[in-house]
Amino acid sequence: MKQMKQKYREFLPAVLEVQETPPSPLGRLLLWVIIILFVIVIFWASLSKVDIVAMARGKLVVNELSRPVNTSVTAEIIAVLVKEGEHVEKGQTLIKLNSKSLVAQLEENILQQQINRFHIARLTLLYEHYLNRPAPMILSTELQKESPILAKQISMLLKAEVEDDYNEKEVYKLNQQILMAQIENYQAQKEMAENLLPIYEEQHRALDLLYKKKMTSKDSLLEVKKKYLEAKFTVSAAEAKMKEMQASYSQIDTQMNSHIADKIKEIEQEKIQKLNQNHILSVQQKQLEALIAQYELKAPIAGIVEALAYRDAGAAVEAPQELLKIVPENEKLIAEVLVKNQDIGFLRKNQLVTVKIDTFDFTRYGWIEGTLLNISSDAIEDKDLGLVYKAVIELNKNHLIIDDQPVNLEPGMSISAEIITGQRTVLSYLLSPMMEALDDVGKQR
């Protein structure tokens, strides 16, 4: 039957053939497939979500910021001990400045302290000498080893002072010996006169009896009486002289003791003066050493030398000029980015970030995941972007795999960051241009 209808239609005119021919089921099937696919797409678009990202540009920096090395003095460079890109350790000397005048002052200061210490040792020995305490009049072995020449000079001075003291004491002793000899002489005269007095007295009594009996002359009597009185005067004069000599003898003792006391006082005063001088010099030494230390620029941290201003000696620098920077080596890198003003309201700490390194094509070498670490509290002015906020991103790793080899990222590499601020459905994403257009309908600027 179907074959007869089909043959019948073949003999109909073209228009009637089209009218009589039933529609093809393939078209209906295609239409239903399109409708079903459309429904599936709408259903998928309403359920599937895409990330909402805020784009930001920036660069990689070390977590610990690079340390500038500045000069705090005005001086001439006499040596540059490092090169650009060289690794240095913390405390390593980088640049030396001319500090010759200060070094000369320091050397003079140290020498003066040394001289004072030798004199203090001399005065200590001299003090013991004047107190009659047995002690060798030589400087210690340590001082002799420290400076043989200075020790010899100070020892000679000490020896001369001791000899002068001995000579002065000898003069005192000699004067006392002279006085003692004179005292002994007067003592002898006194004793002789005292021995003659009884004799003269006896002679005077005998002659007086004879004179009364008219048996001797008056001149003989007076002569004996004269000798008696002369002997008596000699005794009195000798006693007076002996007292005078004994007073002079005691005075010499007093003078010698006073001389020793004065010397001890002078020694103590000179020793105190030397100690005070050394205290002041010690303070000045520390000040000079601290000042000289400023003429040697040292690395504040271990790292790599960058931005070296001078490579040779001879240049004059002024405080507080920056001469170089030390960038920490192998420190953890972070990304600093500038976020546009319209995105800042959606940023929160700990949001996930995708960091793409401009140096390496992310389609070939991938990207680095990170976390939003910090957001500045105030905007800054950027000449290209206007008001922007600075944000810090913590990276999960510091390297990328390039040709099967790990390559460390370097500070200063430019990056683009995609900060995931949320999610939205694909349908809302596709309809957003339409919604914006509808929102603008009927509006006029």
List keywords for this structure.
Elongation Factor Tu (Ef-tu), domain 3, 4 domains, 9 helices, single chain, alpha+beta, six-stranded antiparallel β-barrel, four-stranded antiparallel sheet, rod-shaped, OB fold (Dihydrolipoamide Acetyltransferase, E2P), 445 residues
What is the C-alpha radius of gyration, as a whole number of Å? 59 Å
User: Roughly what percent helix?
Assistant: 40-55%
- Uncertain stretches of 5 or more adjacent residues: none
What is the count of DSSP helices, taking H or I runs of 4+ residues? 9
Q: Tell me about the biggest sheet?
A: 6 strands, antiparallel, barrel
Instruction: Describe the global form.
Output: rod-shaped
| Beta-strand share of residues | 15-25%
Q: What structural category characterises the helix and strand content?
A: alpha+beta
How far do the termini sit from each other?
A: 72 Å
Count of discrete structural domains: 4
Strand tally is: 17
Strand order of the largest sheet: 1-10-14-12-11-17
H and E string: HHHEEEEEHHHHEEEEEEHEEEEEEH
Overall average pLDDT: 83
Textual characterization of the structure:
With 445 residues, the chain is an alpha+beta fold. It folds into four domains: 2-47; 53-63 and 332-440, Elongation Factor Tu (Ef-tu), domain 3; 67-97 and 295-325, OB fold (Dihydrolipoamide Acetyltransferase, E2P); 102-293, no CATH class. Helix content is 53%, strand content 23%. It is built from nine helices and 17 strands. It has helices at residues 2-10, 14-20, 25-47, 100-130, 141-146, 148-212, 218-293, 362-365, 426-440; strands at residues 49-62, 67-70, 75-80, 87-88, 93-97, 296-298, 303-306, 316-317, 322-328, 333-340, 352-357, 368-375, 380-382, 386-395, 399-402, 405-408, 414-425. The strands form four sheets. It has a six-stranded antiparallel β-barrel with strand order 1-10-14-12-11-17. A four-stranded antiparallel sheet has the order 2-9-7-4, with no helix packed on it. Strands 6-5-3-8 form a four-stranded antiparallel sheet, with no helix packed on it. Helix 4 runs parallel beside helix 6 and helix 4 packs antiparallel against helix 7. The chain is rod-shaped and about 220 Å long.
